[in-house]
């Protein structure tokens, strides 16, 4: 387990509210199950599904737009976290706030490297970046606007209830997600050269490599690198076509999710578990490279199969 290092700062009302919610709802039953699982709308599995359904299925450009916004949000968020080093609410002595939904269920909840810091909320940031991007891209779609408002609110409430974040973490997470939705597309319009645009984004994230010590930064940084390499690779060597057939979109998404999660597991196999969980520079490098390879394969290489599956589908 990594050493616990960080700072504790809060408003009393935040912890009092969290204690009240947990005492009121409890840690079992339908209410607990529902409120804790609302966090899933800001988590990796569902976001991969949403981005994949768009990118591999319905609209490649829309998927890339959404994916880049979420990736930038997920890199900038832990960079801020590792500046403030705010420990999660359950670290505060004298209060009875429990962590009901760990970031990494397999790791010790006191392992800050695995569980990450608290400020701002990563789930809240991701939710606004993802669903806000849907609304910003399809400005006339009222359903997307409703999702962009409702889902981040539910995610934020869930993160407070499960004891993972203070309300102020959630608020600032929402603000960061909104800033990403506005800033990244604005930069894309101002910087016409794609490689210069990518260079600016990467330069804004590289400093975290020298001071971040939580896994979430290195995971997201690796994914960003993989995406930046995969997009031009796909455009030059793959050039797959989208489909309006919903069943094919679902099958492509399931296949892509299998590549994403399966390859992630396979790439861990050559390394001892102790090395991967060490929290040192070597572990961070392995994590960064692993996720870069996973995203490159999922975004750039996996769509090569679509020509083959397309012929089979016609038959």
Explain the layout of strands and helices:
Layout: H1 12-25, H2 29-37, H3 44-58, H4 60-84, H5 112-115, H6 122-137, H7 142-161, H8 167-190, H9 194-205, H10 215-238, H11 246-266, H12 273-276, H13 281-301, H14 305-314
Helix pairs in contact: 3-4, 3-11, 4-6, 4-8, 4-10, 6-7, 6-8, 7-8, 10-13, 11-13
Distance between the termini: 54 Å
Strand content: under 5%
Q: Biggest β-sheet, characterized?
A: none
Q: Let me know the number of strands.
A: 0
Low-confidence residue ranges: none
The helix count comes to 14
Mean pLDDT: 92
What does this 3D model show about the protein?
- The protein is globular, with a radius of gyration of 20 Å.
- The longest helix is centred in the N-terminal third of the chain and has 25 residues, at 60-84.
- With 315 residues, it is an all-alpha fold.
- α3 (44-58) packs across α11 and α11 packs antiparallel against α13 (281-301).
- The mean pLDDT is 92.
- It is 70% helix and 0% strand.
Summarize, please.
The protein has 14 helices and no strands. It is an all-alpha fold and 315 residues long.
Characteristics:
single chain; globular; 315 residues; mainly alpha
